[in-house]
Amino acid sequence: MDAIDLFAGLGGFSEGAEQAGVRVVWAANHWPAAVQVHANNHPETEHVCQDLQQADWTQVPKHDLLLASPACQGHSRARGAMHMLGNAVCPPVARDVIAALREAA
């Protein structure tokens, strides 16, 4: 089974998926440092560093499983956030990405 990992961060979801026998073929995050750490830990995965709201979803590899971990900014002080953001369960960007993937399929 092949998966893509959105909001991949440092790779926790990818690691868990791989331990469960899933091959993570593509991972994306907007923060270059996180993408580099993910690439170091998952060298066989194709990596992109971009804002997922601007992605060309027709270029995403074929996959069976979509991993979309919650954006950490919604429930932590990650990346210098001084306050907690609302709607941490499914931020609007996640809904937009899922809709774009459906259209590209």
Structure description:
The structure is a single chain. 21% of the residues are buried. With 105 residues, the protein is an alpha/beta fold. It has a single domain, classed as Rossmann fold (3-Layer(aba) Sandwich), CATH 3.40.50.150. Mean pLDDT is 82; it is low at 81-89. It has helices at 12-19, 32-41, 92-104; strands at 2-6, 23-29, 46-49, 65-68. A four-stranded parallel beta sheet has the order 3-2-1-4.
In short:
With about 100 residues, the chain is α/β, with parallel strands linked by helices. It is built from 3 helices and 4 strands. The protein starts with a strand and ends with a helix.
Chain-wise SSE layout:
Layout: E1 2-6, H1 12-19, E2 23-29, H2 32-41, E3 46-49, E4 65-68, H3 92-104
Parallel strand pairs: 1-2, 1-4, 2-3
- Give average pLDDT, whole number: 82
Number of strands: 4
Shape: globular
CATH fold label: Rossmann fold
Can you write the helix and strand succession as a string?
EHEHEEH
What is the name of the CATH superfamily? Vaccinia Virus protein VP39
Question: Architecture, CATH level 2?
Answer: 3-Layer(aba) Sandwich
- Distance from first to last alpha carbon: 17 Å
Can you list the strand order of the major beta sheet?
A: 3-2-1-4
Structural class: alpha/beta
Please give the radius of gyration in angstroms. 13 Å
